[in-house]
Fold:
Amino acid sequence: LLLVSRTGPDAPGAADLAAELRAAGAGTTVAACDATDRDALARLLADVPADRPLRAVVHTAGVLADATVAALTPERLAAALRPKVDAAWLLHELTEELPLDAFVLFSSAVAVAGVPGQANYAAGNTFLDALAAHRRALGLPAVSLAWGLWEETGAMTGHLGAADRTRLARYGVGPVATEAGLDALFAAERPHTIVSPLDEGLLREEAAAGRLRPVFGA
Structure:
């Protein structure tokens, strides 16, 4: 396993994660690289040992820079789009000729259901969904998994309080249990797969009130 982030071994929890993976029998290297820097990413890929060639890419990067559309700035757009759009496209271009078995993109249900204040984040994830379709059209492996909110608190969701989670639940997309999410990771076959439980009762109420989003009425 080659685990890559901008800070690499200095990232919080990186050492513990690497130790856990090695204890499970996985050869693990942690590297620092800005995946939005083409030259740096190309050098990283060129250093992959020939006796352990790259066989799969899993892109999990994401940054939240929430704001209403009227309050979006170039900086907020770049913060959300660069790790999604730039990094994923460079990974696509720089591995396009490699015999990969898998190319997995971590997208978000926000791109499908829509959540106020996350237009930039939704746009970045919509790009990932389109990139997966593009790669499939080229005969290349790809799947974009549109996750809902994870049950476990992580770096991107640690700031969310009970009120925030209640607000998100009003859009009918429930939390993803870790075990179910990992099962979906290995089972997904379509280029774009939404991984999130739906609150059918709430969706029916929205439909009765004439507020159901078109995507759920299809």
Notes: The beta strands are 2-5, 29-32, 56-59, 102-108, 143-147, 192-195. The longest strand covers residues 102-108. Residues 184 and 195 are 7 Å apart (CA to CA).
